[in-house]
Amino acid sequence: MTPLLSARALTKQYGGRNGCRNVSFDLYPGEVLCIVGESGSGKSTLLNTLALRMSADAGTLHYASAHGGMDDRLDLLALSEPRKRLLMRTEWGFVQQNPRDGLRNGVSAGANIGEPLMAVGARHYGKIRDTATQWMSRVELDASRIDELPSAFSGGMQQRLQIARNLVTGPRLVFMDEPTAGLDVSVQARLLDLLRTLTSTLHLSVLIVTHDIGVARLLAHRLMVMQGGEVVEAGLTDQVLDDPQHPYTQTLVSSVLPV
Ligand SMILES: Nc1ncnc2c1ncn2[C@@H]1O[C@H](COP(=O)(O)OP(=O)(O)OP(=O)(O)O)[C@@H](O)[C@H]1O
Ligand SMILES: [Mg+2]
């Protein structure tokens, strides 16, 4: 199987400081890959570099686009701005930790879901509204609240709205930075359930950042463990968590094992 996304020796620095360094991995279609590590380990830097929201300093990044053309592997680091934006609009999603950063807060819930559809060419108002209504239900929001502003929804509901906004166009690859952080534990559990259902039914490829091993265990097929900007261990979720090899992973796992 061809990887959807391939990173080799990807590096991003802030001045002299390490953001992330020398990261290599392949992400396959339908796979959920978690990036775990403590605060400051470089998770967000890596995610943003992969999602082309930050420019890499070194390394390579290739993507098997649905519309690949002659060479079906896109060299992402050489992509023009317009093509980058097209890719983000048509094939990728990005779910922010804080839903306020990923929603348009001045327009209704329905418009938040409908806008990305219009951005990929949908024009029929009734159909857009129908789709928005369906997606409200799909993320377990009360569809009768479609005309309310995001601010009228709770934090967990806003996060589900952000997820609907990101999935409505049928992306192939979704980036998520700590999507369940900052939510109550019970709300987190429900959101995790929803994410698990959506990723498997939609056969999504997902790169998800979390410092929460529990989130990783529940969602991820594979893990990458980061420390000080580098990946210190990677592998199948169960293998890494049940039999961690690197001392840092051992500490990370033993500090959060359920009693
Ligand atoms: N804009 C920036 N300018 C300078 N240094 C930065 C910037 N963003 C991050 N860093 C540094 O890069 C390193 C990695 O930060 P990053 O935000 O990627 O970590 P993280 O694993 O996402 O942490 P957290 O779990 O707290 O979100 C840290 O040393 C951080 O101080
Ligand atoms: Mg972060």
Concise account of the structure shown:
With 259 residues, the protein is of the alpha/beta class. Helix content is 38%, strand content 24%.
Give a verbal description of the structure.
- There is one protein chain.
- The chain is globular and about 55 Å long.
- 38% of the residues lie in helices and 24% in strands.
- The model has no long low-confidence stretch (mean pLDDT 93).
- The chain has a domain at 103-170.
- The protein is built from ten helices and ten strands.
- The protein binds adenosine-5'-triphosphate and magnesium ion (MG).
- Magnesium ion (MG) binds next to helix 1.
- InterPro entries: AAA+_ATPase, ABC_transporter-like_ATP-bd, ABC_transporter-like_CS, P-loop_NTPase, PhnK.
- Keywords: ATP-binding, Cell inner membrane, Cell membrane, Membrane, Nucleotide-binding.
- Residues 5-253 form the ABC transporter domain.
- This is Putative phosphonate transport system ATP-binding protein.
